Amino acid sequence: MIGFIGAGSIGGAVITGLVKNGFDENEIIVKGGHSNHTKLLGDQLGFQVVKKVKQLEDTEVIFIAVGANALDSVLAELKEIATDKLIVAFTGSASVTHLKQELGNVKVAHAIPNTPVKVGAGFTGITYSDNFTEDDKKKISSILGYTGQLVEVPEAQLGILGTVAGCSPAFLDVFIEALSDAGVKHGLNRELAYDAAIGMAIGASKLAKQSELNVSALKDEVTSPGGSTIRGVAALEEYGFRNAVIKAVDAAENE
Ligand SMILES: NC(=O)c1ccc[n+]([C@@H]2O[C@H](COP(=O)([O-])OP(=O)(O)OC[C@H]3O[C@@H](n4cnc5c(N)ncnc54)[C@H](OP(=O)(O)O)[C@@H]3O)[C@@H](O)[C@H]2O)c1
């Protein structure tokens, strides 16, 4: 059995990704917050919803998906039952050091998923406490593997990895919307423009992932001398596209 505390945007996305990709919903227990959001999601996906953290006692792994404001009160409740469990917190401020301070010497991890976990195509960075064994890590991989890629990194890199993989779905959405606007400006209907832009983003990403060439070489392959694509690439440079992306990451990193 696995437990969740909080099933909002990211908790709900991870749970949805698990269930929609074959993880048994009967193996999931969720303690929700004050609204009836968790109950509605539970009715939809079939997992059990409970009212108290203590009711997660029979789980082996607990994922914490509450915001920073609720973290410490949740940890205080969790402390009673945490001893023999693997605790994984998605909360941005839940460093491994902080989790251990609040829970004692239990096995804790800090993970930052992104929203594509919802469709099993997520990218999650994770940092484990020193007392996590290889078998414990395999256990977490075997669960979060249902939601996409899981990559272990030192905690110092978790924040920037969370920005590059976690804030960027919104950046890509803006790009897709702009590309679709351009298609409409030049005569495509909106639906076809969105289909083309989204289909391209999926296909180009798959190609970038599977190709032996890096993205720069893939770009070189489709830019024939004096052709339309290199003219478009030059316009992106002229209007500061590359710099805008770097500045977007800077802005996300600097509170
Ligand atoms: N959204 C993302 O893409 C993302 C990605 C990675 C990490 N994170 C981090 O994950 C954390 C949560 O973000 P979020 O976007 O998912 O926020 P959110 O949508 O506000 O979800 C937080 C959930 O926690 C529930 N909650 C609050 N107190 C609780 C308690 N005592 N027991 C059980 N549940 C409780 C709330 O339920 P009620 O509303 O019903 O009270 C709410 O559904 C943040 O620290 C964020 O930085 C988010």
UniProtKB/TrEMBL annotation:
Residues 2-89 form the Pyrroline-5-carboxylate reductase catalytic N-terminal domain. GO terms for cellular component: cytoplasm. It catalyses: L-proline + NAD(+) = (S)-1-pyrroline-5-carboxylate + NADH + 2 H(+); L-proline + NADP(+) = (S)-1-pyrroline-5-carboxylate + NADPH + 2 H(+). The keyword Zinc does not apply. It is an enzyme of class 1 (oxidoreductase). Catalyzes the reduction of 1-pyrroline-5-carboxylate (PCA) to L-proline. This is Pyrroline-5-carboxylate reductase.
